[in-house]
Automatic annotation (TrEMBL):
<dbReference type="GO" id="GO:0003676">
    <property type="term" value="F:nucleic acid binding"/>
</dbReference>
<dbReference type="GO" id="GO:0060090">
    <property type="term" value="F:molecular adaptor activity"/>
</dbReference>
<dbReference type="GO" id="GO:0000781">
    <property type="term" value="C:chromosome, telomeric region"/>
</dbReference>
<dbReference type="GO" id="GO:2001209">
    <property type="term" value="P:positive regulation of transcription elongation by RNA polymerase I"/>
</dbReference>
<dbReference type="InterPro" id="IPR021861">
    <property type="entry name" value="THO_THOC1"/>
</dbReference>
<dbReference type="GO" id="GO:0016593">
    <property type="term" value="C:Cdc73/Paf1 complex"/>
</dbReference>
<feature type="compositionally biased region" description="Low complexity">
    <location>
        <begin position="685"/>
        <end position="697"/>
    </location>
</feature>
<dbReference type="GO" id="GO:0006368">
    <property type="term" value="P:transcription elongation by RNA polymerase II"/>
</dbReference>
<dbReference type="GO" id="GO:0006406">
    <property type="term" value="P:mRNA export from nucleus"/>
</dbReference>
<dbReference type="GO" id="GO:0006283">
    <property type="term" value="P:transcription-coupled nucleotide-excision repair"/>
</dbReference>
<dbReference type="GO" id="GO:0006310">
    <property type="term" value="P:DNA recombination"/>
</dbReference>
<feature type="region of interest" description="Disordered">
    <location>
        <begin position="227"/>
        <end position="249"/>
    </location>
</feature>
<dbReference type="GO" id="GO:0000445">
    <property type="term" value="C:THO complex part of transcription export complex"/>
</dbReference>
<dbReference type="GO" id="GO:0031124">
    <property type="term" value="P:mRNA 3'-end processing"/>
</dbReference>
<feature type="compositionally biased region" description="Polar residues">
    <location>
        <begin position="723"/>
        <end position="733"/>
    </location>
</feature>
<feature type="compositionally biased region" description="Basic and acidic residues">
    <location>
        <begin position="647"/>
        <end position="656"/>
    </location>
</feature>
<feature type="compositionally biased region" description="Basic and acidic residues">
    <location>
        <begin position="713"/>
        <end position="722"/>
    </location>
</feature>
Length: 733
């Protein structure tokens, strides 16, 4: 073993227990950086006996320190035996130790022999940690460290005093170049193993991609698709949806899948060749796309009809349940009822259910599962079911967005000469053998392609959703605008972000001058009148000091106690008391409730006078209220008497009507009896005459009855008397 190896081993064995103890003591270490004074000063300055005794040269000193840090990490991650009770505790101990080592490298950077290469060591040891940790559980447990120290990575080898907050890393230079290649290979492995990836693998992939994107500046070429290569990975080839046969499509689901795959191959994944091919190819794609869009929009129409029907049904129910209460129930904020939020039983049950669901998914995060949002293009039947399922529109909208984005891109490609030249250059670099002949393209074909894409995007898709789903329509518009801005920025190389810098000095908020300032003067017509505002008022010459409110109050009290008489007139007394109130207002405002026009300033000290005055006011107030209420009571009595009299008249008329009906019945009975008696006893003449008299009486009664209700009371009495006379006459006959 060489001298350097022995020194590295000895120092690592000394630091390992220190760093382990520090990692166990600080619980939030993985999320919050350690302070510099947390470490021993001798360790930060590398005052280790083994290094000093071996007299390591300055050229090898920094690399020796890096070897010591790597040795500590390897001993903890590779050769250590887990003493933790469970897997999560084991990951916590290991990741905390790695975090302590990396924080030590950052805080000791000023004591290195070559301070400009600390960033290289920091990246190197961080990459070592990522490589030694297990994928994906270990990396996910450690990843909060990278997110919380992202500015340390961006700082790289620059001094902290000159760091402006913007990353200075370059993809093809150290310290990032070698690590970037390695991490890209890790991402490629995760992409190729998508069939067996678990949710944790996808999470690692996302976090690593975001980390690399944050490391590089926006204008760095590796941070965006500078080559403008269009992804052809539209087919997920998921093992959960396997094709059953390779025969010629005959059923609906096979025809739909065949059309969609053709659209992917010729249109979605190859828009540049589609734009510059012969019109025959364009026509074939158009003949495939139109039926495909028709089928999708037909099911979308059914989806919105169901939604509209359900909305109308709910609105009708709300109208029935909330009669005479106008409200827009569809846009109202729905909140949890109070009986649910305050019920302990419901809250405990909800917590238990969600706890079981969370625990289940946490346990199954390492198990591969199907990606439910992917289109099942590997299985025609599954894909067709995804599209025709009326209640679920996510898959239909996924295809619609693909077609809409590609159509809008082709439209910009043909309209803009700058965009066309940019993609021509990129295409010819990647496709030298089968390069398109851009110069031989017919302008007529361009016009036809432009009209086709515009028809697909605007007339077919945007116009359809404009009336049926304005929210989704606005989302598509904003996404298209965002793509347009991103495309223009990519062609320009994101130069607008290259000159972006954070302010090096703090932005101080200006102090507000709260002193009173004149507002000038009002122009009154001419200079002579305007100059009146410039004449001094003379108030500054007044020598009398302002009155002390406390002293004035005590003087008023003493005058009241001594009961000194005043010889002031009434008007002078009012003015003097008003001036007194103005002087006392700053300190004795709440005492003003004892002051009124009767008590004056004496009310401040004489409570009995104040109470007497208030009692007199209350008495006057009650008297005024009684006077106003008396007229109201008189009107109320008149109204009640009128209603009572009307009810009595109505009752009397009803009784008279009943009596008149009884009289009619009696007259009819007497008439029938008289006719029979006269016919039997003889005298056709007397019978006829009696009959005429009876008829005349009946007619008279009948005619009288028709106008009885319209007569006055006196007339009604006369009518009753005449009817009684007629009845008596008929009885005599």
């Amino acid at each position: 073993m060489s001298r350097i190896e022995a020194a590295v081993l000895e120092v690592s064995q000394q630091l390992l227990p220190k760093f382990t103890q520090l990692g166990n003591r600080v619980q939030s270490l993985i999320n919050v950086p350690l302070e510099k004074d947390t470490f021993d000063e001798k360790d930060l300055t590398f005052q280790w006996t083994s290094l000093i005794d071996n007299d390591i040269s300055s050229e090898n000193f920094d690399s020796t320190v890096d070897l010591i840090c790597k040795k500590i990490i390897q001993d903890s991650l590779v050769f250590s035996f887990d003493e933790a009770s469970n897997e999560s505790e084991s990951y916590r101990i290991k990741t905390n130790l790695c975090a302590v080592v990396l924080d030590f490298i950052f805080h000791s950077r000023a004591n290195r022999k070559n301070q400009s290469n600390w960033g290289t060591s920091f990246f190197d040891i961080f990459a070592t940690v990522i490589e030694l940790l297990s994928l994906p559980q270990g990396i996910l447990a450690f990843w909060p460290y990278a997110e919380s120290r992202i500015n340390w990575f961006k700082m790289s080898n620059t001094d902290e005093s000159t760091y402006s907050g913007i990353s200075t890393l370059v993809s093809y230079k150290n310290p990032l170049s070698e690590k970037l290649r390695h991490w890209n290979s890790v991402l490629e492995i995760l992409e190729n193993n998508s069939k067996i990836n678990s949710p944790e693998h996808f999470e690692v992939k996302y976090k690593l991609q975001k980390f690399l994107s944050d490391l590089l500046p926006l204008h760095e070429e590796s941070n965006f698709n500078r080559s403008s290569s269009i992804s052809r990975k539209q087919l997920p080839d998921s093992p959960w949806n396997k094709a059953r046969s390779n025969t010629r499509p005959t059923s609906n689901h096979e025809i739909f899948t065949d059309d969609y795959l053709y659209a992917i191959e010729k249109f979605i994944t190859d828009p540049i060749e589609f734009s510059f091919r012969s019109f025959t190819t364009i026509r074939n794609v158009n003949e495939t796309l139109n039926p495909l869009i028709d089928a999708i929009l037909e099911h979308e129409e059914d989806f919105y009809k169901i939604g509209k029907h359900n909305t109308k049904t709910v609105a009708n129910l709300n109208s029935k349940l909330n009669d005479n209460y106008e409200a827009d129930f569809q846009v109202a904020n729905v909140s949890e009822p109070s009986y649910m939020s305050q019920s302990r039983v419901i809250q405990e049950k909800k917590k238990e259910v969600w706890g079981e669901i969370t625990a289940f998914f946490q346990q199954k995060r390492s198990i591969p599962r199907p990606t439910i949002i992917d289109l099942a293009v590997g299985n025609a039947e599954s894909l067709y079911k995804q599209i025709v399922h009326t209640e679920n529109d996510i898959y239909r909208k996924e295809i619609i967005l693909q077609i809409c984005f590609v159509a809008a891109f082709i439209e910009k490609l043909i309209n803009s000469e700058e965009i066309e030249n940019f993609f021509k250059t990129c295409y010819q670099k990647d496709n030298n053998k089968n390069s398109l002949r851009f110069d031989e393209i017919d302008e007529t074909n361009k016009t036809k392609i432009l009209s086709t894409c515009k028809h697909l995007c605007e007339n077919r898709i945007l116009n359809f959703y404009a009336t049926r789903d304005p929210t989704f329509h606005s989302i598509i518009k904003k996404l298209l605008e965002s793509d347009d801005r991103f495309l223009l920025a990519k062609i320009d190389g994101f130069k607008s972000f290259a000159a972006f810098k954070f302010a090096e000095e703090d932005h101080n908020v200006p102090e507000i001058d709260k002193s009173f300032k004149k507002f000038g003067f009002i122009k009154l017509g001419n200079k002579q009148i305007n100059n009146v505002w410039k004449i001094n008022s003379g108030l500054e010459t007044i020598s009398e000091p302002s009155t002390n409110p406390g002293a004035l109050y005590e003087r008023l009290r003493s005058n009241w106690e001594m009961k000194e008489p005043t010889s002031e007139e009434e008007k002078d007394r009012i003015v003097r008391e008003w001036q007194t109130l103005r002087s006392l207002r700053s300190q004795f405002l709440f005492e003003f409730k004892k002051f009124n026009e009767v008590t004056g300033t004496k009310g401040f000290f004489d409570d009995s006078a104040t109470e007497t005055s208030m009692a007199e006011k209350e008495k006057t107030r009650k008297l005024l209220h009684a006077m106003l209420h008396e007229e109201h009571e008189a009107n109320l009595r008149k109204a009640r008497e009128y209603i009572k009299e009307r009810e009595q008249n109505k009752k009397r008329r009803n009784e008279e009507m009943e009596n008149s009906n009884d009289i009619q019945e009696a007259v009819g009975a007497k008439k029938m009896k008289s006719e029979k008696d006269l016919a039997f006893e003889g005298g056709q003449e007397s019978a006829i005459s009696g009959e005429e008299i009876a008829e005349s009486g009946v007619l008279e009664v009948s005619s009288t009855e028709q106008t009885f209700d319209d007569m006055t009371e006196d007339k009604q009495q006369e009518e009753l008397s005449s009817r009684e006379g007629s009845v008596a006459q008929s009885e005599q006959l």
